[in-house]
Amino acid sequence: MSAGMHTSIWESLTPPRQPAPELRSALNTEIVVVGGGLTGLSAALHLAQSGRKVALIEGRTIGWGGSGRNNGQVIPTLAAMEPAAIMARYGAQAEPFIHMIRDSADSLFEFVRSYKLECDAEQTGWFQPAHSPDYLRLSESRVKAWQAHGSTAELLNKEEGDTLLGSSHWHGGMLNRTGGHVNPLKLSRALARLCAETGVKIFEQTPANSINRHGEGWRISTPHGKLQAGAVLLATNAYTSQNLEPCIGRSIVPLTAYQLASQPLSKAQRAEIIPKRQAISDTRGDLWYFRYSPDHRLVTGAALLIKAGAKPRLQALLKRRLQSAFPSLDPLEFSHVWSGFVGITADFTPRFHALGPNYYSFTGYNGRGIALTLSVGREFARKINGEECALPFEAPRPIPLHSIVRRVARSRLILTRLKDKQPPKV
Question: Is the pTM of this model over 0.85?
Answer without folding.
Answer: yes
